[in-house]
Specification:
The structure holds 2 protein chains of 2 kinds. By secondary structure, chain A is an alpha+beta fold. Chain A is about 35% helix and about 20% strand. Chain A folds into 4 domains: about 5-65 and about 585-685, Sec23/Sec24 helical domain (Four Helix Bundle (Hemerythrin (Met), subunit A), Up-down Bundle), CATH 1.20.120; about 175-250 and about 500-580, Immunoglobulin-like (Sandwich), CATH 2.60.40; about 260-495, Rossmann fold; about 695-820, Severin (3-Layer(aba) Sandwich). Residues about 1-95 of chain A have low confidence and may be disordered. Classes of the chains: A alpha+beta, B alpha+beta. Chain B: It comes from Astatotilapia calliptera (Eastern happy).
Chain lengths: ~850, ~220
Amino acid sequence: MQTSSVLLRSWIWLLSVRGGQRGEGGRIQEPHSLWIQAVGQSGCSGLYRPVARRVMLVPQDTVHPPQTASGEDITNLWQNSQLSPSLAAMSLQSSTPEALRVVNLLQERNLLPPAPVPAPTPCLTQDLQKLNCSPEVFRSTLTSIPQTQSLLNKAKMPLGLLLHPFKDLSQLPVVTSSTIVRCRFCRTYINPFVSFLDQRRWKCNLCYRVNDVPEEFMYNPVSRSYGEPHKRPEVQNATIEFIAPSEYMLRPPQPAVYLFVLDVSHNAVETGYLNVFCQSLLDNISSLPGDSRTKVGFITFDSTIHFYNLQEGLSQPQMLIVSDIEDIFLPTPDSLLVNLNESKELVQDLLKSLPNLFEKTMETQSALGSALQAAFKLLSPTGGRMSVFQTQLPNLGVGALQSREDPNQRASAKDIQHLAPATDFYKKLALDCSSQQVAVDLFLLSAQYCDLASLGCISRYSAGSVYYYPSYHHQHNPAQVERFQKDLKRYLTRKIGFEAVMRIRCTKGLSIHTFHGNFFVRSTDLLSLPNVNPDAGFAVQMSIEENLDDMQVVSFQAALLYTSSKGERRIRVHTLCLPVVNSLSDIFAGADVQAITGLLACMAVDRSVTASLSDARDAMTNAAIDSLMSYRQSVLTIQQPGLLVPACLRLFPLYILALLKQKAFRTGTSTRLDDRVFAMLQLKYQPLAYAMLMIHPALYRVDDLTDEGALNINERTIPQPRLLQLSVEKLSREGAFLMDAGIVIYLWIGRNCHSNFLTQVLGVPNYAAVPDNLYLLPELDTAESQRTRAFIGWLRDQRPFFPSLHIIRDESQLKASFMQNMIEDRTESALSYYEFLLHLQQQISK
Amino acid sequence: MILLTMVARVADGLPLAASVQEDEQSERDLQQYQSQAKQLCRKLDAQSPERCTLEAGDMNFHLLISQGVCYLSLCEASFPRKMAFAYLEDLSNEFYDQYGRRIPTVTRPYSFIEFDTYIQKVKKSYVDSRARRTLSSVNTELQDIQRIMVGNIEEVLQRGEALSAICTKASNLSNMAEKYHKDAKYLNTRSTYAKFAAVAVLFVTLIFYVRFWWL
């Protein structure tokens, strides 16, 4: 056995050399790895002959085995290879991996998997894959990277990364060491994908230069052993956090500073949000992240700016009013931001009295611009977080805006105007904030048009986040109030990182050129994030600048340097490793359809602001047409009629259609401009998992939930109903259906819904008794009610924001928005899924 | 005005605490002073003077070392030195009380950053001119200014560099000397040869002269 394998090795080597001379260098590796797998799977006797034949096939260019082929597939190959070449080719086609199985979309209707679509696994050896970064944190649109730019151009798919770098993780190794080992040349952090040449030297996997292993690194604190640098936690974990030494600090770590800027104009008092805000802050004041240095401050504004002196030792808070909004100044600079621990009682006093303070105000104007300038002045010495609550269009002083929306044009199929900001005031201020490590989070609670396109810039460039509660009212809209409450709780208590920067590095030859998300690009690849929060997602686009000829794998590394709320400087490093391939079929096999959709959505948002919405819509349709056409022309060997796609891209046309019908990009349906802009901001800012729900909501039938296949989490049984297609044909009058659209969940009750469901879950005797505007499920002590509530609770727990629940009947106002999410159906202004497929097919075969 | 305060461990220059607060009007180049302060802390060792003041342009660094911890503050040159040291003394007492035992064991920079709260409070009482008068009356006898060494920040930071400059100059000098020595030797030999040649020529001429004249 020993001799035969040695002999075999030399055989393969010889053949490889010959293959290499023919310019098929990339392919020759595969027989080798296959052979190794085969030894593991099927023993050794008689291996010699079949493998030799199998190798012979390679130059004939008929076999193109994937690296993941299992042992059984290989045995098949061997048997087939004894047949005539044409037959062999046919049967080889059938052995293609699941991802490349040809699907005719026009024939196969039911494509949705029963459960949410998982991320594809890159074709790496098991050792590497075991170490690789989680797809929830770091994901690529193509899990197999093409070798050259021309190959990528041929595949016509976007190449990019989607990141969720500060995600709350249940397990995160933290390393404290005086020296952090990094590549001397490209500054890459040491990671699991570097190679150790020997005990003393390691080779960087991004720039391929050789570095020394520092003495300190030889000792492994986990196993307390010496001389095993490859067993250090840094080399065993693709996601790791370092405690940074003082070289990583330009100044001492800043304290956690929170400044709240509140609109108290008549309009704001009407909505009644102040009560909810003050109560939430009072409830969570001791769980604000921070240490004994934490500082807070408050500014309120209408047509004037009000400051609050909360200096320790005062008997009650002092209000200071500045009416000169043209040239704003701070009345007492050092007692407006106070230490939370020392002035806690004063802060609590203020929060209790604030809602009553402005109860009778008649001031209708809003000088938001000046308030922001004042807040910036207050925060600029330290940096921190500014939370702005705004309820109307700012109409006084600097940064005043005009209403730009024409309600009659909302439904026009023509181009949508005013997606770009009206003034650069907010962007400029945001950049000033960014340079002083101040992030601005915007809470917009308004029934009227507020020009989110302009206001949103303040958060976008300062790495803040935007929350939007359309038609918020404390009495008329209890669902929004609940959402606001829950969002605030999460917002106030979630983890936060201050004065952060993020850099994404990739293997030499690849280059990153466009970034999506909320941040400011300080130098070519350094993202400045005054604050970073666990709910922020980022996306980048990449191109291949140099051919990746002699590489098996490439790596990407995202490093996020931030100051924790406890004043520790930390670096969180994520490293992703992906294989390089040189054939189109492999590229298609590795396509990640959700990531592609997410990246296309970001690109389309940019396009609709810089060019026009119709341009962006065309670009999305063309993206689907181009990639499917490329697949048809270059990968498919057998031409059949129909719309043929690889199985991994079978949802691509559906997602593109969903994007075209998404609030952000739809035309012909009445959409408020602010709603549209907010949807665009969300698409760019939300991590992929949440953005996907906004694009393609999940539909479940919930009147017949059973415990079959249920999950069991913390001794709670969570039923797992099947995902249904978004088509009215899936609804039935006898049932109840739950649609999960990210920030909102609809529960639609059919007219003839089972009385069992009505009584056991909703607690009403019959359909007519279901109240309008129901947003809470009653807590009934029945198995059905428990199951339904457990399922909804589980859906809510999975995301950081709080989706409000609306229970709707046929007569409800919200029925229209429920039906608008039925993506596969035809509407007056948009194609049905089948029509869209026919359109694609027509374009492709043209 | 006290612009910057820093507490560091003398043994390895690890920063332990600092005050971040900058004033609105002092948009001056604090970043530069910040890094100077850091360098300074790294240069300290057991031989460093217990108290000293270093001039850096129109600013002064005041330095106090006690119990293996260095307390450093950056003040305007006009700020009374007596006050500055009273302030540092105050910090050192409180700091040692709070964290004294843990000082040698910590490894993370700014481990005691929460001390900042105290620093700010003390700073306020020293900077406030009304409070200052009362304080200074208490502290008059506290400080003996003569004990405090005064130097220039540039000098301290560049002391090492000056030495190395001298070193290179010296080695240059010795190189030159060697070269000179060689040249001199060479010249010597040449002049000796020249002398011999002259004598030889004279001698040959003499022989020719004797031979042709007398014969």
